[in-house]
Design brief:
It is a single chain. Helices cover 33% and strands 31% of the residues. It is built from 24 helices and 77 strands. Strands 21, 23, 25, 27, 28 and 29 form a 6-stranded mixed β-sheet that branches. Strands 31, 33, 35, 37, 38 and 43 form a 6-stranded mixed β-sheet that branches. Strands 40, 41, 44, 46, 48 and 49 form a 6-stranded mixed β-sheet that branches.
Length: 1633
């Protein structure tokens, strides 16, 4: 069966849903585990007596478990067959359609082949007739046919390949169906056999149940007899309890009334207080309102007064102007002079006030200084003492002299002799001694306040409150230093622009990019363990981390790295977001020194750098042990140990092991010279500054030394051991001189004591111990190295030499942990090296003889052998008092000395017995447990602490438990560790409503008993739940799992004899009737219960649905969003600090930097860093979705357990009055336990920051937009994927559905949005897997494209133009939609349909009514007559596009025409514009007559002739003018019949002697007699102009209406040539239009 099941794909089996009955059978066992019927308990008892039945039951269960997968497999087979049949039908339909397309394709190919043959024949005929134009058109048709034939052949090959693939798929499906049919048949046979087996098992189970029922009946009768006896006693106790309850109820009612009175009184007082408070607030509001009204009135008065004052001043000024103007003066000059006078007076007043203030300040300062001078003179005792004191200058010179001479004290003495103060040091000495690096102004080392210095001559300047004189503001403004403020601002902006290196911000979609523009991989360029002279190369990848296109430019490396580092970088130009480029870093070391620096780059958004580090090879040596203890060995024996020297560095060195007392001179002169030659001037300066600082007693800062990981570790080790480090001095010692001591030959080194250790290797050195003299031997060894940077390593060796014939190899017998009153035994082995037998006597100290015994007490040990004695230890509780000093009561440790006396030996052999004696007590806390009220459908759990007072682990177990009590974990059995407290869960689950009193017994493994008293009250509620525990399946985030259960009301009778009735303990039963319930959900829980409130009638049940939908809490998402927003803010100041530190490192010396770094640390610690967090964060929907996707991706899973209480009340919820609650008892509450495991989503969206909302935006109606969504399988297994059904008539379509997603694989889903109308659309696409569902929200807006054209009537007439010249005209298209529209313009003459139409019958052979072509006469050259620019493009929303149409005929014709089509998005036809034009060989034309020829030219070319012959052969050109006079029946005369002729002159670029065209119409007199009137009959027309000849006709008196009037006249035009037209007038009278 398993082999057959592996033939069909696993995805089809996984996707098959379960049948309804099978799903129920799978879900029920999940809930049936909680509570078992009483019969099951009885059968379990009987099963203990009959093991055979138990084995049969287990076999039945195993068969049931195996039957479930068989049914699942059959269901999977049925669904797989249906699915395959459906696929086969679809493929067959698809094959039929494909074959139809293939036949159509072949027919088109045959048709094209025939057309090619006919076209070839026509081309041959045209060539014979020398018709070039026809041959050109036919060749174009032939090329088009060849192209179409090639396209059809390609299409035919594709259809054939697709047809073969589809047929192969159909064959594969047929094979799978054949395989699955065999599997289904075998599965059906197995199902029949399984059902037969189930029937046999059911019969056997029925027999067992009947036997169990008989036994249960016997047990029930026995229990009834016992219960009858107990019922009487319960009746008496119940009566007493009822009386006590009534009495307590009366007392409680009395106190309750008193409490209610007090509560009402308090409420009344609070109400009065609240009313008084409200009244005060209302009074305050009214007062505030009145005050506001009064202030408004006052403000209005002031405004009116100000306006009146301004108007009065204006009137006054106007009156003065009028007066001055009347006197003939200059009013403007007078007003200006008056204002200047007012400003000058105001400045004078201000200046006088300032002068007064300054005078007052000067006077106050002078008075204050005089008062201080007087006080100072009073304080001085005598002027002689002041003269004896040293001045400040003298003390300063003395201090500098002491510092230069190397004095250790920096404190000035107050009592220096006069000679020291008089003799100043020389200036050259001071210049040599004082340097900016060694002399530091440390305010802590000098105490100037203790000295009594001489007072200055001007005391005012030395006061604390003295303020220096400041230049007045007027003087500063008059004479600015460094330019004006505008000049300073311009200079600052220019400097800032230069420093920023012309960078600008990058803002994409409203978001500004902040942070590092490019990420480097690797982040640190590290050249480790380099060799001099070699070349090292590393590639670094720079990835664009900005939002859009960015540039990258190399700036360079730091100055101290330019001699060793070379950067090869070819700027790639503009780089899109996520693109990368490579940088090659070449390092050629020249000095053996660690280097650190940065490689700087400049991006469009700012500069960035990549750190670079070069590390030399170093030695890192260590020993695996510092102490070797050989233990005790007899003299003459030899023992050996090894010590390992390990080098974890990349540099090797020579080593040598020797005793610590010996001195050894290493040959390192060469290495010292090399090392000294590698130091640069900068290093020498640093070493000098370090030595000076060490003399001053200051510690060097490690931040400015080369950072070496290995040296740092060695320094830390040396400091821990108390040895001096290398950083304490710069001098190098080459000889180790230690005073010699006596050599100890007992401990020596092996053969390998010196050699060379390579990098990353280890060496083992043997150490040999050969004891000669009994006693303890100790020797110290050292390991010295040739590399001076490696410190000397030390280790010690210990050994003990003994010389005893009898000894105990285990002098310490450890019995470990022992309990009181328990027997422990051990064997003590005694060895001898004597050559004769010895008598041994074993003695126990008298204090412990009651507890320890050695057997036998006396024995003989043979020569060179061993002897075993038995040790028995039985500690009593009196051991602490009996042992005395050998027992420690606090630690409970026993140290008992034992003695072995050897005959003929004075010194006995001793050994010690060690043991820790402890008790075996266990303590249960609390000693009594009250479970309270508990329903029979649930269990109450309480925790009990079990404490082990012993120092040994003990096994324990609760035995003899009642059926309604359970102890967990491990059913109350386990092991408790020493001094451990275990928390045990005691679960009480009553079987009926009554009161329970019982004891639990806990036994230890040594059979000690500990009891726990328990009591409880059982409750039978009126309602019950079908399931009290719901275990939801693992549900992914934002997915939903639903479970169903029922609330059952089984209380239909009050007869307690037939069945148990609902009651609380021993109280009265609950009434029969409708019972209501309500589920109380915890707040902010992912649980939904529907319905949560309801009423259940007796004997009925109510369906309840419980839904679990795990989500991320909103505060957590907001916190993640705020962290993402504040992270760039936190990074910026740190980067700024590092830049300033690097600049300071270049500028200042090593010693001065230490103080500055300390100051910077203090400033950094005091600056508030929490300012960015105080800003209010505004979360947009995109940021919220991004934070939610980030948390969902990092979600690790969560398991919650909810207990939902269900309150039960008697009565119907519809019968209650208003908001009055129903009466309920809290003891009848039911509890529903929900297990809610939330797991991370199996599929996540990786594109668009993880957002599950895809917004297509605005899409034009009839077009489609494409969105790609990347989904990734983050689960550890492959998943079969299904998709929910989208609306078939909707605009959204999934273009590439997938069926499987491998573990860790990312697939891109292509979604299309094609709106059919202008509407906002939204749908949800569910991606369904067996581990969860991912919902994608699809949104989009359909927008109709609206375009208007500036041409009215969609006809563009280009007018007349000279042949072989061109004229242009323009029009506009306006985009009125909100989308950019892609357009293209197409001419019918250039389209494929136009070329096909030319193959049909010429239009001049058809009648006027049958002519439907809009393409008229074309150029003979094959070029298009009309052209338009631009041909295609995009119109922005709300914008207009200008188009230019050019008319370029190459011969004379009046019927040039074409049609211009405006196509939107390559498919929608928006406008059709008819293009018309006419061409003449000469500059004059006449139009307006009736048409006399066809508007389409013949294919026959008109032969060209000479102009002279043309003039000779020129004929009159006819013009027909028909006039219809409409005769009305009324008496009012009808208007004359009127027609018009247009005579025009074409504007041309050719040179012509005549600029105008003259026209004249002959025969005007004869025409007038016939009733014709022509105005004007002659005239001239300018270039580019036209003139209208108006022809009107009134029937003369002798006109015959039955015969039309026909008259002709000659119209002559004179321009560059002369043309004559014969105008034929036809007039007639009609009665109706």
């Amino acid at each position: 069966m398993e082999e057959d099941a592996s033939l069909f794909p696993k995805e089809l089996l996984d996707n098959i849903p379960l049948v309804e009955d099978e799903r129920d059978e799978l879900e029920n066992p999940e809930f049936e585990v909680e509570f078992l019927p009483p019969e099951a308990g009885n059968s379990a008892d009987s099963g203990c007596l009959c093991p055979e039945k138990e084995h049969n039951t287990d076999a039945d269960i195993s068969k049931k478990k195996t039957a479930i997968p068989d049914r699942l497999q059959a269901c999977h087979l049925r669904k797989t067959l249906n699915h395959l049949e459906k696929l086969r039908e679809e493929k067959e339909l698809f094959i039929q359609k494909t074959r139809g397309e293939l036949r159509a394709c072949r027919q088109r190919m045959d048709l094209i082949t025939k057309q090619q043959a006919s076209v070839a024949a026509e081309v041959a005929a045209g060539r014979e007739a020398n018709n070039t134009a026809a041959v050109g058109r036919l060749q174009a048709v032939s090329r088009r046919l060849c192209m179409e034939l090639d396209n059809e052949r390609d299409l035919q090959s594709k259809i054939k390949a697709l047809l073969q693939k589809s047929e192969g798929t159909v064959w594969h499906i047929a094979i799978q169906e054949r395989q699955l049919e065999d599997l289904q048949k075998s599965a059906q046979d197995e199902a029949v056999a399984g059902r037969k087996c189930l029937h046999a098992q059911a019969a056997q189970q029925l027999r067992r149940e009947e036997e169990a029922l008989e036994k249960a009946e016997r047990n029930r009768l026995l229990r009834v007899r016992k219960s009858m006896h107990l019922q009487k006693e319960r009746g008496l106790r119940h009566q007493k309890l009822v009386e006590d309850a009534q009495r307590n109820h009366r007392i409680a009612v009395k106190f309750l009334k008193a409490s209610l009175r007090r509560v009402r009184e308090q409420e009344r007082q609070e109400e009065m207080k609240s009313r008084a408070h409200m009244k005060r607030r209302m009074d305050a509001v009214l007062a505030l309102k009145n005050s506001i009204t009064a202030n408004r009135e006052t403000l209005r008065k002031f405004q009116a007064w100000g306006q009146a004052k301004a108007e009065l001043a204006e009137q006054k000024t106007q009156a003065e102007k009028d007066m001055i103007l009347a006197q003939g003066g200059d009013a403007f000059k007078h007003v200006f002079h008056q204002r200047r006078c007012q400003e000058l007076e105001a400045q004078n007043r201000t200046f006088e006030e300032e002068q007064k203030l300054r005078k007052q300040e000067i006077v106050n300062r002078i008075l204050k200084e005089e008062a201080e001078e007087e006080n100072r003179k009073k304080k001085q005792s005598s002027p002689a003492k002041a003269a004896d004191r040293l001045t400040l200058r003298d003390k300063t010179w003395n201090y500098v002299t002491d510092v230069c001479e190397g004095s250790g004290t920096a404190v000035l003495s107050c009592h220096l002799p006069d000679s020291d103060g008089a003799a100043h040091p020389k200036a050259p000495q001071l210049l040599v001694a004082i340097s900016s690096e060694s002399v530091q102004g440390d305010p802590g080392n000098t105490s100037w306040e203790d000295d009594s210095l001489a007072e200055p001559e001007i005391p005012g300047l030395w006061k604390d409150d003295h303020k220096p004189y400041q230049v007045p503001k007027e003087d500063v403004d008059r004479k600015p230093v460094g330019g004006t403020k505008m000049d300073k601002d311009i200079l600052a902006r220019t400097v800032e622009k230069l420093h920023s290196r012309v960078t600008h911000k990058q803002v994409v979609s409203g978001r500004e990019f902040k942070g590092r523009p490019f990420n480097s991989k690797p982040k640190l360029i590290h050249f480790k363990d380099f060799d001099l002279g070699k070349v090292y190369k590393k590639k670094v990848t720079l990835i664009n981390a900005t939002y859009s296109i960015n540039h990258c430019k190399l700036v360079g490396v730091e100055e101290h790295l330019r001699d060793f580092i070379r950067i090869d970088f070819d700027p790639p130009g503009p780089m899109s977001a996520g693109m990368s480029c490579e940088v090659l870093v070449t390092f050629k070391p020249m000095i053996n020194k660690d280097l650190e620096g940065n490689v700087s780059f400049m991006a469009q958004t700012g500069g960035f750098s990549v750190p670079l580090k070069c590390s030399t090879k170093k030695c890192a040596l260590s020993l695996d042990k510092e102490l070797i203890d050989f233990g005790s060995y007899v003299v003459g024996e030899t023992a050996s140990r090894t010590i390992t020297l390990t080098n974890i560095g990349g540099l090797g060195t020579k080593f040598k092991f020797l005793p610590a007392s010996e001195s050894y001179e290493l040959d390192i002169s060469q290495s010292v010279m090399k090392t000294s030659s590698l130091f640069t001037d900068e290093d020498n300066d640093k070493i000098t500054s370090i030595s000076e600082q060490q003399i001053e007693g200051n510690e060097s800062s490690p931040t400015h030394m080369p950072s070496r990981k290995e040296s740092g570790k060695q320094d830390s080790k040396e400091q821990e051991e108390g040895r001096p480090t290398d950083s304490e001095g710069v001098t190098m010692t080459t000889v180790v001189t230690i005073p010699p001591e006596e050599e100890q030959t007992e401990i020596s080194l092996g053969e390998v004591t010196e050699g060379e250790i390579g990098p990353f290797s280890s060496v083992k050195v043997p150490v040999i111990f050969m004891p000669v003299i009994p006693g303890e031997v100790q020797t110290k060894f050292k390991a010295v190295f040739k590399n001076q940077q490696c410190p000397t390593l030390y280790f010690r060796v210990l050994g003990v030499a003994i010389d005893v014939p009898v000894w105990v190899p285990k002098p310490n017998v450890d019995l470990k942990m022992c309990m009181y009153d328990r027997l422990y035994q051990d064997s003590v082995v005694v060895h001898t090296r004597s050559k004769a037998a010895l008598r041994l006597k074993f003695e126990v100290c008298k204090e412990l003889r009651e507890h320890i015994e050695l057997l036998p007490e006396t024995g003989y040990i043979q020569a060179h052998s061993s002897y075993a004695v038995q040790l028995k230890f039985l500690p009593r509780h009196s051991l602490p008092e009996d042992a005395g000093k050998y027992f420690d009561k606090e630690t409970r440790v026993l140290k008992a000395p034992m003695t072995i006396r050897v005959a003929d030996q004075i010194k006995p052999v001793g050994f010690t017995v060690h043991a820790v004696v402890t008790t075996s007590d266990l303590e249960l806390s609390p000693s009594a447990v009250d479970f309270g009220y508990c329903t029979i459908y649930e269990g109450v759990r309480t925790q009990v602490s079990l404490y082990n007072h012993s120092l040994l682990p003990q096994g324990f177990g609760f035995v003899g438990l009642p059926k309604f009590v359970d102890v967990q974990p491990n059913d109350g059995f386990g092991t408790i560790l020493p001094l451990e407290m275990l928390q045990l869960d005691v679960i009480f689950q009553p079987t009926k409503a009554k009161e329970y009193n019982f004891e639990l017994v806990c036994k230890s493994e040594i059979n000690r008993c500990f009891k726990l008293a328990c009591r409880a009250v059982g409750v039978h509620p009126p309602l019950e739940l079908s399931h009290y525990q719901v275990k939801f399946a693992a549900t992914s985030l934002y997915d939903m799992s639903v479970a169903t259960l029922h609330v059952i009301n089984s209380h239909v009778s009050m007869n307690s004899l037939t069945h148990s009735v609902p009651r609380i303990g021993s109280e009265d039963p609950s009434p029969v009737g409708p019972t209501s319930f309500e589920f109380l959900l915890p707040p902010d829980s992912p649980i939904t219960i529907s319905p949560s409130v309801g009423t259940v009638l007796p004997g009925k049940r109510c369906l309840i649905q419980v839904a679990f939908r795990p989500t991320l809490p909103s505060p957590l998402i907001h916190q993640e969003d705020s962290q993402a927003l504040t992270k760039p803010v936190e990074v910026r100041p740190v980067r700024k600090d590092t830049v300033t530190q690097r600049k300071d490192l270049r500028r200042q010396s090593f010693s001065t930097l230490r103080l500055q770094n300390q100051d910077q640390l203090l400033r950094t610690s005091t600056t508030p860093t929490s300012e960015p967090y105080k800003q209010d964060l505004k979360f947009s929907s995109d940021e919220y979705q991004a934070a939610q996707a980030t948390l969902a991706r990092s979600f690790q899973g969560k398991f919650d357990k909810f207990v939902v209480p269900c309150v039960v009340a008697s009565g119907d919820t519809k019968d209650r009055k208003g908001t009055e609650p129903l009466s309920f008892s809290p003891h009848n509450t039911l509890y529903l336990e929900l297990w809610c495991p939330a797991v991370p989503p199996s599929i996540v969206v990786t594109s668009n920051k993880g957002q599950t909302i895809s917004n297509f935006g605005d899409i034009a109606v009839g077009h489609h937009g494409i969105k790609k969504v990347s989904i990734q399988n983050i689960s550890p297994e492959d998943l079969a994927v299904e998709f929910s059904m989208l609306n078939p008539n909707g605009p959204f379509v999934l273009l590439n559905p997938i069926s499987k997603l491998l573990a860790g694989e990312t697939q891109v889903l292509t979604l299309s949005f094609s709106p059919h109308e202008s509407v906002l659309a939204q749908e949800t696409l569910n991606i369904i897997t067996k581990r969860g569902t991912l919902s994608l929200t699809l949104m989009g807006t359909g927008v109709a494209s609206m375009i208007t054209c500036s041409i009215e009537g969609d006809v563009l007439d280009m007018g007349y133009v000279i042949a072989r010249e061109s004229v242009s005209s323009s029009f506009k298209l306006q985009n009125h939609s909100t989308l950019p529209i892609k357009f293209s313009l197409q001419l019918d003459s250039l389209s494929r349909s136009g070329s096909a139409a030319r193959q049909r019958l010429p239009q001049f052979l058809a009648s006027r009514a049958q002519r439907t072509e809009v393409v008229g006469t074309q150029n003979h050259s094959g070029q298009s007559v009309f052209s338009v620019v631009p041909v295609e493009g995009i119109m922005d929303p709300g914008k207009a596009q200008d188009f230019t149409v050019t008319f370029s005929p190459d011969h004379e014709s009046l019927y040039f025409s074409d049609r211009l089509q405006v196509v939107l998005f390559e498919k929608k036809l928006s406008h059709q514009i008819l293009l018309k034009g006419a061409a003449r060989e000469h500059m004059m034309f006449v139009e307006g007559g009736d048409p006399l020829d066809v508007p389409v030219e013949s294919l026959t070319a008109i032969p060209t002739c000479d102009p002279e012959r043309r003039e000779e052969a020129e004929e009159l050109k006819p013009i027909l003018v028909t006039l219809d006079y409409i005769q009305l029946d009324t008496d009012k005369p009808a208007p004359p019949a009127t027609r018009e002729l247009q005579v025009g002159c074409i504007r041309t670029t050719q040179l012509s002697p005549k600029k105008t065209v003259e026209f004249s119409l002959d025969g005007g007199t004869s025409l007038q007699h016939k009733g014709f009137t022509i105005e004007p009959s002659r005239g001239s027309v300018e270039r580019g102009q036209t003139k209208t000849l108006t022809i009107s006709w009134m029937p003369p008196a002798d006109f015959d209406p039955d015969h039309p009037l026909m008259v002709s006249a000659l119209l002559q035009l004179k321009g560059d040539v002369k043309e004559t037209y014969k105008v034929l007038f036809v007039a007639q009278v009609v009665t109706s239009p």
